[in-house]
Amino acid sequence: MALHTRDGGFVMPNAWDGLSALMLGDAGFEAIATSSAALAAMLGRSDGRHEVTRSEHLEHAGLLARLTGLPVNGDFEDGYGDTPEDVAATVEAAVEFGLAGVGVEDTSGDPDQPIRDFDEAVRRVRGAVDAAKGRIAVTGRTDNFIQGRPDLDDTIRRLTAFAEVGADVVYAPFPPDLAALEAIVTAVAPTPVNVLVSPADKVLTVAELQKAGVKRISLGPFLYVNAMAALEQATKALVAGDLAAATTGMSFDRISELIAHGKN
Hints:
Layout: H1 2-5, E1 10-12, H2 18-26, E2 32-33, H3 36-42, H4 54-68, E3 72-74, H5 84-96, E4 101-105, H6 118-132, E5 137-141, H7 152-164, E6 169-171, H8 178-188, E7 193-196, H9 206-211, E8 216-218, H10 222-239, H11 243-246, H12 252-263
Parallel strand pairs: 1-8, 2-3, 3-4, 4-5, 5-6, 6-7, 7-8
Helix pairs in contact: 2-4, 2-12, 5-6, 7-8
């Protein structure tokens, strides 16, 4: 938690495989996270629909932690369970796998009712906190804004309640603008706030987000989709017969260097 409470906070990029995690560690980042969306896409599945199992995500997160030696936060969707007891079991497993943090969303996996009721959402975060016992940082997250519920008051109500039951960090992806983000930061203070890239209306700089009081900046699937955009361009070059453009990239010497560094 020291990274969350120091002046300025920190950037916590999300890796999707061993090499991306090693690259982020080599770049000097002090902590990394998984991305449930990137992991699901990597497996050819949908995110947020219970298509990736808890054991699959734990194995994935544990690999990133072992390879890098960095604190790893698990982006564990809804905590992999309907009940507070299920969520607690996920937190216990995350501790056993050596993770430093775990996120619990108020999502349901049900497209017809994607956000859980307020009381249920709070109970599930409390279950995570009770299981954590200070051994792992718990992030309480509401997905109102990305599930078609642009209700700032309800978002603040949920995040405040998550903080009150002991969440170490709170998080609402893509508030509409900077003013909404600042309102969240003020309402939950002194609990640290995570932001996914920026508010919805404009991508800000790290310095601008820190000035707004954000303590942790995550990237979610966006480094992954950046890499996939490069792959798509290489694929188009290959279709066009341009082998040179399709095969330009990181050298295997560099890849071997990163892997050797991870093993050490």
